[in-house]
Amino acid sequence: MGSNGTIRVGVVGVGRGQSFARGAGPSVGMELVALCDTWESRLKEVGASFGVATYSDYDRFLEHDLDAVILANYFHQHAPFAIQALAAGKHVMSETSANKTLAEAVALCRAVEASGCTYMLAENYPYTAFNQELARLYREGEIGRVLYAEGEYNHPMSPEDRMRISPGRNHWRNVLPSTYYCTHALAPLMCITDTRPVTVNGLSSAGQEINRHTVRTRDPGSVILCRMDNGAVFRIMGLGLPGHSNWYRLHGTRGAMEITRGAGYFGPGEVRVWHEPWDVPEGTELERTYVPDWPEHGDLARAAGHGGGDFWTCFHFANAIHAGGQPYLDVYRGVTMSSAGILAWKSALEDGRPFEVPDFRDEAARARRGAFWAAWSRARRIWSMRGGSGGRVGMRGSRRQAGRTDTRACRTHRSGGASRRIRPRGGTP
After folding, report:
1. Which member of 85, 197, 206, 265 lies 3.0 to 4.6 Å from 226 by CB, making a disulfide possible if both were Cys?
2. Nearest-angstrom CA–CA distance, 118 and 141
3. What's the CA gap between 173 and 154, in Å, rounded?
4. Rounded mean pLDDT of 326-350?
């Protein structure tokens, strides 16, 4: 760290990564010192605007004098990048998803443990003002023990916007099963209730009419049923069905609470809490609805993206590094919620058969569940391509090499009879 304890940060990805670059500032005890991306023209432009060093080679980027790496490259690339950074002695905060296979989840857990470094999943939806308020209410016992909960992250986009952020059939957004993008719906419920999924059942909706003006290679939406470690059942819904929805509800042994529905990305931002007339906790109203604020640092959170979550992820990451420990959204919770989406798709392919989510804290469970598993052969082929928006780091998708990192240059991939370099640009998770 710097002489004053400032954490020197490098960010991978100059698309989505710009939000993290802005957030890695003095307010959270950080200093941005480097950026990395293979989108060289954009890299130079963004690097100049921040006045920091730039790299198109990930190996050289890791040699820069930095303490921590923030990964904002493509959704399916994070684990190999994280493993290499941890091996280099860097703390890591990774955008969602933590892993694209269960083998990567196992490798990532082992890498964090071996490194002694801090790892955090930058899942930002638990940190909206209303989700932090739901967490406070739950900790105080407002609704008792959770029995059932629902989380929805359903984010439809116009065909024009979809093609703008995910051009071409091979873009990760166009091959990703909808269950994989479950963390925005699941993570807030896990954080509110301090529970984790132990089994999942998944069902997918086929609706190619929705994709008629874009690529036709993925399902538009799905539902995941999670049995949690306290016996509760959580229903998780997403991803791109008509009818935008970011919404959460919890039913407990003594009441219920939710964020209210309505217009806007997060709706009105209100929290509703209600009880049955025969079981109103002392000093509590039968029902109330109000707009909550953040418990602290509201001025900084309001200026950040994703409902304030982009401030809070950097804040908690920095605090964990300074404390020499792990944040709440540590590697085990990160790979658990990411693997729930992987296994839910496997379930959907078998018409909802339940699958166990391993306890990644347990080495015996990790040894049983370390096999490579990808959604389908097409995705496996695409995900095995090397290169990415974060530098010249490749991911080989074979069973023998799952979780490994290759630092050679991007290879040439043949598509439609023509050769081209695979150089996907900085993504927007």
Report:
1. 197
2. 31
3. 14
4. 97
pTM for the full predicted model: 0.87
CB 356 within 8 A of CB 126: no
3-class SS of residue 424: coil
CA gap 241, 374 in Å, rounded: 23
- How many residues can be counted in the chain? 429
Annotate 120-185 with DSSP letters as a single string.
EE---GGGSHHHHHHHHHHHTTTT-SEEEEEEEEE----HHHHHHHS-STTSGGGT--GGGG-HHH
pLDDT of residue 371: 54
Q: In the prediction, which pLDDT does 185 show?
A: 98
- What average pLDDT does the segment 152-164 reach? 88
pLDDT of residue 374: 59
Calculate the average pLDDT of the chain.
86
Q: Is the pLDDT score of 130 beyond 60?
A: yes
d(CA 383, CA 172): 8
Please enumerate in sequence order all residues whose Cβ is within 8 A of that of 111, keeping only pairs 6 or more positions apart, or say none. Answer: 82, 83, 86, 87
Residue 375: per-residue pLDDT: 60
Q: Where are the alpha helices (DSSP H) in 215-286?
A: none
DSSP 8-state code for residue 235: E
Is the pLDDT score of 95 beyond 80?
A: yes
240: its two tokens: 């791109």
Please state, in angstroms and rounded to a whole number, the distance separating the CA atoms of residues 312 and 287.
Answer: 30
Domain borders along the chain are 126-300
Predicted confidence band at 169 (pLDDT cuts at 50, 70, 90)? confident
Mean pLDDT (whole number) for 387-394: 35
Q: What are phi and psi of 35, to 5 degrees?
A: -130, 150
User: CA–CA separation, 391 vs 12, rounded Å?
Assistant: 8
> Is the CATH number 3.30.360.10 carried by domain 126-300?
yes
Complete DSSP assignment for 27-76:
GGTEEEEEEE-S-HHHHHHHHHHHT-EEES-HHHHHHSS-SEEEE-S-GG
